[in-house]
Amino acid sequence: MDVAEARFDAFNALCPSRRLLDTIGDKWASLVIVALGLEGPLRYSRLATRIDGVSQKMLTQTLRGLERDGLVTRTVTPSVPVRVDYALTPLGLSLLGTLRHLKDWAEEHMPQVDAARAAYDRGDRV
Amino acid sequence: MDVAEARFDAFNALCPSRRLLDTIGDKWASLVIVALGLEGPLRYSRLATRIDGVSQKMLTQTLRGLERDGLVTRTVTPSVPVRVDYALTPLGLSLLGTLRHLKDWAEEHMPQVDAARAAYDRGDRV
DNA sequence: CGGCATCCTGTGAGATACTG
DNA sequence: CAGTATCTCACAGGATGCCG
Of A48, A84, B12, B19, which sits with the fewest C-beta atoms within 10 Å of its C-beta? Predict the structure, then answer.
């Protein structure tokens, strides 16, 4: 297994695209980025309500990951009670631009995907 | 739970970007698309060797999904033994272009992400 | 308010063996 | 050659309860 694992690690290390996809492919991560992009800096509690269906655990976990990756900043205001704001970094902001490309493709082509899917499920044969 | 689930479905239905991310965020799906993009049509067995570490099960499952979504075609040649070729559709090809945008961002910015990550793990505080 | 620690569960990936 | 079928097991992720 050592050999396989070594190859796998090398593969990941050498493939930035793959690692990017791992990041934005994450359901909550992409939603957080978009939310912060649309509304600017947000408090934790506000993010929680803006992103429908996310659990505390996943929100926190996602934010930690994004912070670690330098995509968002975490600002603690030590008032009582505590206030924590999250915002996109310039890096996160540039990623937002790339996400827009994806969005464009999606809005232009997903209907075709839907049609293909419906046809496939109907069992259409050429 | 009905309410929550209903909202969730509506959310997914109304958000093409999210569904696109679900597709290309899938590890094997994106690798298959890129492999077919780089080398043109490929047989099942060739895909299996080109995509390092994929299991039969996941490869088949991934290809079925991509075929269903109209991104790849599956062509069976009923010789003995059977021969099956997979190729990108025009739709899949256009998606490949979008993936290139992602790749560009990744190659330009992932080093920054790596740096941020290393700093975070080192425990650097501002 | 904004978390972390703990427990619990379901999905889904991998290994293995069999088939048209 | 190109799959399908079955099992097992790990881990992502939800629920809950406590803390600074």
Answer: B12
A80: which 2 tokens?
């009582």
* pLDDT tens-digit readout, B27-70: 999 999 999 999 999 999 999 999 999 999 999 999 999 999 99
CATH classification at residue B71: 1.10.10.10
pLDDT in tens, A1-29: 444 444 444 555 568 888 999 999 999 99
To the nearest whole Å, the CA of A80 is away from the closest chain B CA by 23
What is the span of the domain harbouring residue B59? 3-122
Contact A115 B70 (CB under 8 A): yes
A26: which nucleotide lies closest, measuring CA to C1'?
D12
Question: What's the whole-model pTM score?
Answer: 0.89
Strand, coil or helix: A39:
helix
